[in-house]
Design a protein that fits this description.
By secondary structure, the chain is an alpha/beta fold. The chain is about 35% helix and about 25% strand.
Length: about 250
């Protein structure tokens, strides 16, 4: 398989903070419609990898290609425009707007909150809002003020806000932290659905959840890949067991 077939190709990626290599010569490839989960102990470099992909942190060396386009030279908003969506750990929804309005202002042509006040609701936006609301299980709550949603529903709304932009690659940092067991299961279903037409990269600590979603797992340790493969294969890996039990 040549490089060109991957949605994301990370090669020899390194970032040093004051001589400390947070990510150390990392090479990783993600396929079209793949749901990849990155796991590893604290300080392994997981969030830094997402920061590098979305342009929040600049690499010291190496390459990140998305659909064959080099991202390391682009700004954060240029990377978003290319089709990379990123959800951070803390939800950033507009609490005082309705679920519908949160989705609506996230539509790329909405130009953010202020632009949306002057832009007309078109059939296209309306259709995308309904489609996404269905996916994130909030169809019945479109008129509800976002502040009144449960913690899990707020997380889904934020995923929905990213889906409004129809990204080719969606990155989620610990999406089920603080969720109830039922919400975790529903989130697993949601992620399994949305990777049908995009690639999804998830950082997660909850191993039961990882089992439900991962096509492939990458284990990071001290900024390097320790193991990669199916959850079963990775769990049996001696090095992985040692790292996890040693912490």
């Amino acid at each position: 398989m040549s490089n060109t077939d991957f949605v994301l190709s990370i090669e020899d990626l390194t970032v040093s903070f004051d001589g400390f290599k947070a990510v150390d010569n990392l090479t990783m490839y993600i396929d079209k419609n793949e749901l990849r989960v990155v796991i590893g102990p604290n300080g392994a470099g997981k969030t830094t990898v997402l920061d590098l992909i979305c342009g929040k942190t600049k690499s010291t060396s190496g390459s990140i290609k998305f659909m064959n386009k080099e991202l390391t030279k682009l700004s954060e908003h240029e990377i978003v425009r290319e089709g990379v969506g990123r959800k951070f750990q803390t939800p950033s929804i507009y609490e005082n707007l309705s679920v519908y309005q949160n989705l609506e202002v996230s539509y790329p042509k909405g130009r953010g909150v202020f632009g949306s006040l002057t832009f007309k609701r078109t059939a296209e936006v309306e259709a995308q809002v309904r489609k996404v609301a269905e996916e994130i299980m909030l169809s019945d709550l479109l008129d509800l003020e976002a502040a009144l949603l449960s913690h899990g529903q707020k997380q889904w709304l934020e995923i929905g806000m990213l889906l409004m932009q129809d990204p080719e690659l969606l990155m989620l940092d610990e999406p089920v932290a603080g969720m109830s067991a039922k919400e975790r299961d529903q989130t697993a279903e949601l992620l399994n659905k949305i990777c049908n037409n995009r690639s999804v990269l998830v950082i997660e600590h909850d191993m039961e959840f990882v089992k439900k979603i991962a096509h492939k797992v990458t284990v990071l340790h001290q900024g390097k890949i320790l193991a990669e493969g199916s959850m079963d294969k990775v769990q049996e890996d001696e090095k992985v067991i040692e790292v996890y039990l040693g912490h």
